[in-house]
Amino acid sequence: MIQKDEFTGNCIVREDSNSVVTLTMDQPKKRNALSSKMMDALLTELNDIAASPNIRAVILAANGPVFCAGHDLKELKGISHCDGHAALFAQCSELMMRIVTLPQPVIAQIHGMATAAGCQLVASCDLAVASDTAKFATPGVNIGLFCSTPMVALSRNIARKHAMRMLLTGDPISAEQAWQMGLISDIVSEDELETATRDLAARIAEKSGSTVKIGKEAFYRQIEMPLASAYDYASSVMTTNMQTSDAGEGIGAFVEKRHPTWRHE
């Protein structure tokens, strides 16, 4: 059941359906560029979602023919001083980090093109479902502005030589190539994109919210650690997880051959 459907700052549309929130970028004439206004609207919604325990999954979608064209180049060109550029790129980094640190999983729903910081947005999400006609690129090198911040997310998702080829040539890759590289998790037809993404979000939302939160945080922390440190850390996380009421309920339900009733704590 949809609980809310509203425009936020004329940049995005928010839709709450049960425990899943869909944030749809809604500036198709601007190719859903990550302007300061768009990033501020997304950050505002994500911060609200982070504090909402009843929300257990987020879908990031877009209206129009393009998912996201990256930074608003007219906005960048209109900034005449270094501090202004630094503030804009810092805001973008804050947005990407908010996605990674959000307690709830974030699923990108991609159609059309995702370029530069738009590709970074895809790479920053926990999962990404793309239509089979979607394309991805980091073409900053073509305009004299290397995709340095998109590189951070991209290089943490795909192999180095694949990342460098995208960054050095600016050439777009297909959805099939993106899936083979590990940039996206699923490919579906254009007609199935919204349904497939919603189904995936709903399956995740059925899990224990506290367990998913523990697991997402642990995933991103351990992946940057040396192997031995990662095992030590993951062991401590599992020990803490084992003490939660949902772990007791889930294990008990498995043993008793019944469906668990999650308390999300």
From TrEMBL:
Transmembrane segments: none annotated. The keyword Lipid metabolism applies. Keywords: Fatty acid metabolism, Lipid metabolism, Transit peptide. It comes from the Bacteria. SUPFAM superfamilies: ClpP/crotonase. InterPro entries: ClpP/crotonase-like_dom_sf, Enoyl-CoA_hydra/iso, Enoyl-CoA_hydra_C, Mitochondrial_ECH-domain. Gene3D superfamilies: 2-enoyl-CoA Hydratase, Chain A, domain 1, Lyase 2-enoyl-coa Hydratase, Chain A, domain 2. May play a role in fatty acid biosynthesis and insulin sensitivity. Belongs to the enoyl-CoA hydratase/isomerase family. NCBIfam families: PRK08139.1. This is Enoyl-CoA hydratase domain-containing protein 3, mitochondrial. It comes from Thalassospira marina.
